[in-house]
Fold this sequence. Notes:
88 strands, 43% strand, glycoprotein, mainly beta, Immunoglobulin-like
Amino acid sequence: MLREEQPFGTPVLRVIAIDLNPRQTIEYSLVTTPGEQARFRIDKSTGDITTAHIFDRDEPIREKEIYITVRATDNGRPRLDDVCTFKVTILDINDNPPVFDKVRYEESVTKDMKANLRVATISATDMDDGDNSIIKYEIVQQNPDSSYFKINENNGLLTLTKPVDRSPGQYYSIRVRAYNVDPQGEAVQDAEVDVKVRVVESNKLPPYFTRVQAAALVLNETFKNYTESLAEFEAESNIPEKPEVIFELIQGRAEQTNSKNTFLLEQINNTASIKLGKTLDYETVTEYTLTVSVKNSYNNVVETVLKIKVLDENDIIPVFTEVTSGTIPENEPPGTPVMQVRAYDLDGTPANNIVSYRIEDENQQLFHIDSRTGSITSRVEFDREATDSYHLKIIAEDNSPSALYSNGKPNSCSQLFTIKISDKNDHKPRFAKGLLATEDVSEDSDINMTLIEVKALDQDTASLITYSIIEGNVGDAFKIDEHTGRISINNWLDYETIRDYKLIVQADDGIFQDSTTVYIKIKNVNDNPPRFTGIRNVTIQEETIPSGCIMTVQAYDPDIENRTDPQLIRFFYVVEYDDVIEIDDGGCLRLKRVLDRDPPLGFNRWQFIITATDEDGAGKSTPSTVIIYLEDINDNAPRLSNAMPVVWGENRPPGLIVRLTAEDVDDAQNGPPFHFSIDSNAPDEIKERFQVQNDELYALVEFDREEQKEYRVPIRISDSGEEPMSDVSILQLVIGDDNDNEMRPGESRIFVYNYKGESPNTEVGRVYVDDPDDWDLPDKTFMWDDATRHQSVDFFDLNRDTGMITMLQGTRGGNYELNFHVIEQSSHFPRHNVTAKVTVTVKEIPEEAVDKSGSIRFHNVTAEEFVSRTPGQLTTPKDRLQASIANTLNVSRENVDVFTVLKRDNVNGTFLDVRFSAHGSPYYAPERLNGMMGYRLRQLEEDVGFSVLMVGIDECIEEGRNCELSCKNTLYKSNVPIAVYTNTSSFVGVNAFVQAECVCEAPSPSFTCLNRGFLVNDRCSCPEGFEGPHCEMLGIGFYGSGYALYPPISPCNMTRISVELSPQQEDGLVMYIGPLNYNPRLPVQDFLALELVKGLPVLLLDYGSGTIRIEHRHRFPQGKPFTVEIVLQPQTIEMIVDNCKLSTCMSLDAPKGPNRFLNVNAPLQLGGAAVNLDYLGSLFNWTYVPQNKGFSGCLRNLTINERTYDLRAPIC
Length: 1212
């Protein structure tokens, strides 16, 4: 039994099967019909059955009893099984609340109705069974109207408790609760309903029934007369002048109260008849409670109840479970159990659902079946060799006359079952051969390698033979598959340890055994590497090559038994030592070049790995380490080891500056003590101002930092070796500042770019005063000028100790004049006060300007030099760059912003990255900025005064430096600015830089509509003429002399370019992706060109290591547009015309040289080129040079890696 509504995994029971053979393992499984929902699970090892379904005993599912069939199967050969079928009864729980027959009740009482009279009957039903369906009623005491009524807790009869005190038309409203209780009397499930009682005039009487069906009706479940009147009701209206009434069969909320219209009401005049509307089923509903109401013209209503009981009939045929076979061993005595068959009948009552069994064929003299349990037993002893199976026809029938057939017989079904006669183990297994042998098993054979298979035969088909090695398996060297008899290697074999094995193998069928002998002979192979003897370390003098052998290396082969035989060993060394050592087959090790003992490239001991390989260098190898120790010679001069720089204060009298120290990488005998002196070749000013005594450096004069800030003093140092070594080291001497100069008023300028107006509090520069001293900041105090302080403190803050000015967050664009007082006090002069003025220009830069910025990478220039005035000129390099950009783009200087000056370090050195933007309206695209500035590279360098490494900073341009495969440039930007400080000018710019990401650039996932298009249901609605998925213009025309620039492409593992051509002339350059100029500092010459030559497409491609030319030779109809698709991959280049995959119209080639990707940081050019390609090709030494003649015709549908290009707005 199982309670309903239990969760998955609820234990049901454990089944246990017994096998008389204790060696057998039993496995359990459930027998189900195909497609049947799994409602139970069984543990195949333990037989524990759990639920896989949540059962519901109540309407409408009505899972009251479930049959489970379990099969138990052993692991013998053949596998035998048995089945058992049992019934699981689903027990009811109180999980359903009562359901009222009506959603709400509307009743009536007359004005003069007396107390204790009936008002109405409140009725509810409960889908639970038994005690769980017992319902009690009560009035919820929630308002004063409740005191006028009482209700019978058992039958729901509502009566009046005191006289009616309200006028006709008014109401009493109460709430009735229906509930059921548990055995302890506690309420478990409940429901509530509103009852409205209307007061009517005393003379407005309700109708009354004159004829009702008092006794309960009884119907067989097979009753199907839909026209017969089952019960009739008559009523009077109580209104003489309006005798008509209206009957209604109340549709309840449960099936027992006619929720599915099982019964219907038909009215003729004042008579109502109840008729059957749907078929009955005792197994679904056993009793109906129908409520018939009648209403008169006053809308007064009375009700009566009709009970209809359904009688169970034998209308369901028994059904067998899915078990169709059984097994009995041969030679078993009569009465031996064979199997149990099981059928079930879903009728609701006995004897309709009691099933009995009988055999109906000629085999009934061989088998007997228990009519009650379905257990089949044998009547005779069977011989499998005579007959190995029988078929039984079993009849299952219930125990009462069928309601389906009018023949007086019970319902029945038949099923054919197969009974198999199984074999018994009564014969001994026999090996075909008593002796087996296998030779030449190599000692290096792989583990698990199969060597031989032994086979034993058994006349018993049921016998399961298992094999085992019972003797001779030394070290578990071998293993045997217990089922197949295959013998294989279990552990590594060693000829030198054991050369042959004698295995005793046994076959066992569970009762009887037999054995055989297997001989295995091991074959010797070269499985031992050579072994070195007498390896020793040697010592030689550094920087010398000894004559002859440094040492002789010796080794032997353990696989050769006689050590006096030739060992056939060759010696090798690691290829990295090829320029250092050599060794011959005799083991003579020689030096090929001198070895250095001293740092930074030398070592006091050198370690070499020598390999000995047997079989003349083709066999196994053993490495060994040879260490060569080097004796020191005096071959290095000492060097200064003082911490640099040494600081000597200005205005100090002559005296000791520092004690000199030195280090020598040679050994101690060739090192200290050291001798120090001023180098004889030193300038006279050094000799006049400095002197060395022993190991001490002295100042001979008093120094002035404002005259010279730093000196480089050449010190010659000699060691004490047998042949002394000497060299000159430079001592860096800085003259320390002394505040001995009075400051003077100063002016400075600070320019700040405020990114999106969101810069946080930012240090933008220091207050500048004219003062030759530069270490005197602690002597100064900085203060706001009181007269102008109020104009500035809301936007700027001042550090009184350092003079650092901080721009506060929220400062808007504009010019700010900041005035300060600086106070200075020193021992060299009296306290004094000067003024300082700082002009701060703040300019807000929008995000669009940064996103569309161009970029330039300069070489050999610092950020401070870039924003400072160049000596001998009136402008800074930054100013000159701004002017050069304005001239090139033909825009006003005010429309050009150079907003990023950023020092960048990488493996190739230190560079200065500069970003800029320019606009007419709107901001120019970066492809235009980089393209036009790159085209005028030489003029740009001349204007600014510094060398340019690249225009359009591209971290992917050098193949393999940042990414092995795909690479794209990503612009990172921050509202935290970067600052460059100098004395009279400072620059605070936007922190924006490009970084390489090792992915292929993909179309943006955001769905943006271009060219005034707008989004409608995740698609762009585009103006006329803009047909692309994002409202791109798909076509552009050329007339042979123009070109258009578009965004460049990034290196990808696969790049796919597609464009549609409608040419008007047979020759012309369709597309060019490549450099705009020759820059010797950036050795990148990659390019791609698509051109028409005599009407046929030609592709030129250079990955930087050689140009290839792919020509399409298949003619196509002239005057019609055609599509060219280019597929670039690391190993192949493909050009396809009009998607034709035939060999005649596909062109394929491989790139030249080692490079694998197209690396270009210039714009894509359509219709022609902005540069002279003949001149450029000669500088880059291209094998094939694209033509300079422009394309004439129309280009459409340019896509690169699924990105559709907007051809409406070329860059120029």
